[in-house]
Amino acid sequence: MHTAGQIFILIGTFFMFLGGLGVFRMPDVYNKLQAGTKATTLGFMSIALGVGLSQPQWLVKTLVLIAFISFTNPVSSSVLARAAMKRGIPARKVTKND
Amino acid sequence: MITYIFWLLIAAGLILSIIRIILGPGKEDRVAALDTANVIGTGIILLLAFQFQSPLYLDVALVYAVLGFMETVVIARIMENNKEL
Fold this sequence. Notes:
Mean pLDDT of chain A: 89
Shape of chain B: flat
Radius of gyration of chain A: 16 Å
Mean pLDDT of chain B: 90
Distance between the termini of chain A: 49 Å
Number of domains of chain A: 1
Low-confidence stretches of chain B: none
Distance between the termini of chain B: 48 Å
Strand content of chain B: under 5%
Shape of chain A: elongated
Number of domains of chain B: 1
Largest interface: A-B, 51 and 45 residues
Helix content of chain B: over 70%
Low-confidence stretches of chain A: none
Largest sheet of chain A: none
Largest sheet of chain B: none
Order of helices and strands of chain B: HHH
Number of strands of chain A: 0
Helix content of chain A: over 70%
Order of helices and strands of chain A: HHH
Oligomer: heterodimer
Radius of gyration of chain B: 15 Å
Strand content of chain A: under 5%
């Protein structure tokens, strides 16, 4: 059980690193929001599941954390993208509209 | 030994997003990087609970997640309502 928790925490920290790298490297506000939010949501879920699996009496609190993050993180990303679009921030030149 | 790898990876993610907060070109880039840094900070608090084997940090992580979400939504609403800010 301890080894399974450590494997989940390793996957989660790797996705947290990918989220930071995406925020650092992407050229645009919308690309930064997409890369940062999705990768850190998956990374946080995996870290919380790993911590809960390594100590099984903590599993209820970490499941509450997973549910809370999976509700609030898309909402904050959507609100930020809408604020950037209302302020008229242009997308990158390569981006095409339908 | 494997905990060094956890801390190294998550510190690299936090440092990259803090660099983007410092030298981001626009205000929206900075707020997007701040949102990412908040979620990574909540993950760091969970890793502290794993490292020290103490369940107190789970409550701290829950409160920090609520406050980070409120912060992002309030900043986005203020930026949306007055354009010259």
